[in-house]
């Protein structure tokens, strides 16, 4: 019987960190991060999520110190004020807030749900998902869905792509303008769809894989063309707006690409950056990145404040449920270990007693049953009070008592290396995961 582990988390997100700091914390991707964390001492499960707005990691360990140590090098080059560390309860609540869009740059945006699911599958493929993180992430996704079906938290501007277009519209007149969307992923697709609702006369979708760009171009009603990234130097000078959202690790739009351009606004919503910041030094060229979208998203937050309060109420209810389930599981682990150990001792002593009684004369079935009932009653009476104490300890977050009980009744504590007296203790700590006797269960339910 092994103790149910606790979650520890670390977050580098847009609320406290810059784009560069989020990028620095991202490492080599979700799978590499999870694999690295699983190799650290005491880590049983690991989960990571990396988006343009956040880089986060979570681990499950039996000891909180192991969790803190494992995550201590997650963002070594990021200033302390940009790194938020989370304990078990904070991690559960934070994941729910992230899935609900409350922690997004654009409050209530829908894109994060898909990003969390993808991060979960990648973490699972890397061997990082176990029972604790499965419950935590599944619950977070459930809360995210509730938030969007039971409130209007996602009404209006709900993605970085749409926020970028809103920002562009406040800077330039898009009527009959030409827009270039660089990247055919989810954010690029959302940007193209949002542009489709404006007065632009042409949308050009550029992507490393042209067929993917063609797919996005077919998604919009505005005249659209699909091109390769290699065509950008020829396309950008004629554009009024450029929105970049690729997953490239390298810069995609270089300063030379805007040479000869007139008035052009470039909005970079990629992580890491797509647009070389030096491009903004060219006359007539304005470059915005994720940090610059804050004003657009601030207005969105103000309009959604009431819906956010409704979502927070949902989170409070769901957090109480999962914490209560977690507490019950922790107590049940210790109680099950306790009864399992007692059951082994009971079985061993019953065998001894029956052998002695048989040597004194044949036993009837009724006599055997009487002796077995006596053993069950003794175990039940002796363990009834400790059972209550363990459940009370879980309810009061007294995890030290739970850990002590699990150490005392750890089935891996065998008698092979112990003396005679210690062997009896070890015997009491081993056995199968049988439930408490019915008599005790009934008594506890009264």
From TrEMBL:
The keyword rRNA-binding does not apply. The keyword Nucleotidyltransferase does not apply. Signal peptide: none annotated. The record marks 94 as: Important for activity. Its EC number is 1.2.1.70. NADP(+) binds at residues 183-188. InterPro entries: 4pyrrol_synth_GluRdtase, 4pyrrol_synth_GluRdtase_dimer, 4pyrrol_synth_GluRdtase_N, GluRdtase_CS, GluRdtase_dimer_dom_sf, GluRdtase_N_sf, NAD(P)-bd_dom_sf, Shikm_DH/Glu-tRNA_Rdtase. One of its GO terms (molecular function) is NADP binding. Belongs to the glutamyl-tRNA reductase family. During catalysis, the active site Cys acts as a nucleophile attacking the alpha-carbonyl group of tRNA-bound glutamate with the formation of a thioester intermediate between enzyme and glutamate, and the concomitant release of tRNA(Glu). The thioester intermediate is finally reduced by direct hydride transfer from NADPH, to form the product GSA. This is Glutamyl-tRNA reductase. It comes from Halorubrum californiense DSM 19288. The gene is hemA.
């Amino acid at each position: 019987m092994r103790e149910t582990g606790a979650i520890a988390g670390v977050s580098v997100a847009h609320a406290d960190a810059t784009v560069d700091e989020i990028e620095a914390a991202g490492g080599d991707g979700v799978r590499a991060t999870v694999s690295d964390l699983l190799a650290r001492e005491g880590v049983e499960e690991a989960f990571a999520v990396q988006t343009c707005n956040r880089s986060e990691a979570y681990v499950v360990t039996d000891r909180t110190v192991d969790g803190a140590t494992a995550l201590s090098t997650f963002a070594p080059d990021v200033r302390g004020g940009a790194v938020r560390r989370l304990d078990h309860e904070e991690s559960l609540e934070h994941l729910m807030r992230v899935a609900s869009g409350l922690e997004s740059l654009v409050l209530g945006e829908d894109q994060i749900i898909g990003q969390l699911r993808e991060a979960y599958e990648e973490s699972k493929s890397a061997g990082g998902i176990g029972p604790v993180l499965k419950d935590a992430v599944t619950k977070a996704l459930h809360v995210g869905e509730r938030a969007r079906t039971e409130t209007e938290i996602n009404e209006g501007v709900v993605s970085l792509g749409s926020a970028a277009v809103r920002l562009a519209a406040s800077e330039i007149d898009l009527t009959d303008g030409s827009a270039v969307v660089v990247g055919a992923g989810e954010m690029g697709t959302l940007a193209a769809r949002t542009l489709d609702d404006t007065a632009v006369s042409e949308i050009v979708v550029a992507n490393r894989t042209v067929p993917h760009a063609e797919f996005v171009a077919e998604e919009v009603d505005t005249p659209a063309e699909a091109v390769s990234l290699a065509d950008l130097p020829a396309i950008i000078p004629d554009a009024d707006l450029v929105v970049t959202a690729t997953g490239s690790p390298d810069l995609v739009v270089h300063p030379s690409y805007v040479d000869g351009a007139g008035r052009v606004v470039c909005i970079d919503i990629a992580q890491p950056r797509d647009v070389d910041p030096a491009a903004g030094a060219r006359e007539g060229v304005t470059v915005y990145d994720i940090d610059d979208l804050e004003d657009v998203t601030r207005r969105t937050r103000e309009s959604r404040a009431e819906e956010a309060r409704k979502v927070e109420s949902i989170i409070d209810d769901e957090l109480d449920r999962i914490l209560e389930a977690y507490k019950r599981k922790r107590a049940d682990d210790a109680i099950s270990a306790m009864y399992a150990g007692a059951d082994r001792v009971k079985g061993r002593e019953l065998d001894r007693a029956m052998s002695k009684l048989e040597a004194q004369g044949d036993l009837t079935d009724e006599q055997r049953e009487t002796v077995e009932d006596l053993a069950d009653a003794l175990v039940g009476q002796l363990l009834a009070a400790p059972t209550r104490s363990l459940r009370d300890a879980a309810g009061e977050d007294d995890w030290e008592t739970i850990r002590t009980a699990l150490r005392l009744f750890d089935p891996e504590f065998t008698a092979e290396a112990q003396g005679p007296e210690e062997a009896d203790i070890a015997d009491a700590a081993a056995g199968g995961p049988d439930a408490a006797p019915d008599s005790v269960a009934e008594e506890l339910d009264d």
